[in-house]
Design goal:
258 residues, alpha/beta, six-stranded mixed β-sheet, 6 strands, 41% helix, 12% strand, globular
């Protein structure tokens, strides 16, 4: 408590540096959570994300609905599916259309942070409110797997999420058991799957368009042969380009073999 008998000039008030940057309109992440979170820069619209049409339609309809009901309802998206299935890109497109930044938080890193789990999560939620921003939690399977022994952290996470007013995206491989746990939220669960042949072909074409291909590289054949997600395709193209650089640094050419 302050000593009211002291003259005003002798009193001290400690101001949180993040609050100062907020007052100064500086969009900087709180130093205490800078190692476990980052902004996801996205200008892509939902219609441009190469995802199944049914998911695309649901997200487009949601954006339209959210713009009208954002002050009266709170939403949590549960995106589950394999690595590289464009879950983050989809969340980024939603926020881009809502003209809101997206704060990406790694739950594994949050749990291993120097701060206590509760304190780190509280700072993340405060950060999202200050901006305001959508929040994308990665590696949610970790928190909801009994083998990790994170029962207390899971309960605290769900309790704080239930009282949160920002748009939230939960990223997991498996379906998360959260229905019925978030009574103050509207939970929307979407499954992201390995894309069909036509979509895979479009992904291969898009990722390879900046590279020189050998004559024996048949995108249609590759897309038909391998059932891969967008992220896996991107990783393969990046690796193939690296091999091409090793072979010839002046005339890089990607071949179907490497």
């Amino acid at each position: 408590p302050y000593d009211t008998d002291k003259p005003l000039i002798t009193r001290e008030v400690k101001i949180n540096t993040r609050i100062v940057t907020y007052i100064l309109s500086q969009e900087l992440i709180d130093d205490d959570i800078s190692l476990i979170s980052e902004f996801y820069p996205s200008t892509m619209m939902i219609k441009d994300v190469i995802i199944p049409n049914d998911i695309k339609e649901k997200l487009i309809n949601f954006v339209s609905y959210f713009k009208t009901n954002r002050l009266t309802e709170c939403f949590v998206f549960s995106f589950h599916g394999p690595y590289g299935s464009l879950k983050l890109e989809s969340a980024g497109a939603v926020c881009a259309e809502l003209k809101a930044p997206l704060l990406v938080v790694d739950l594994l890193a949050l749990d291993n942070a120097d701060l206590y789990f509760e304190r780190a999560l509280d700072l993340v939620l405060r950060e999202a409110k200050l901006l305001p921003a959508g929040i994308y939690f990665r590696n949610c399977d970790f928190l909801f797997t009994n083998e990790t022994g994170k029962t207390y952290e899971r309960r605290y996470f769900l309790k704080e999420l239930n009282n949160n007013s920002n748009l939230v995206f939960l990223d997991s491989i498996n379906i998360l058991p959260i229905h019925g746990e978030l009574k103050n939220q509207r939970v929307i669960s979407l499954e992201f799957t390995i894309p069909e042949y036509t979509m895979r072909k479009d992904l291969w074409t898009d990722y390879l368009k900046s590279y020189t291909l050998s004559d024996d590289t048949d995108i249609k054949e590759i897309a038909n042969k391998y059932n891969l997600t967008s992220g896996q395709i991107k990783d393969i193209v990046t690796t193939a380009h690296t091999y091409a650089l090793w072979r010839d640094t002046t005339h890089t050419m990607i071949t179907s073999s490497r």
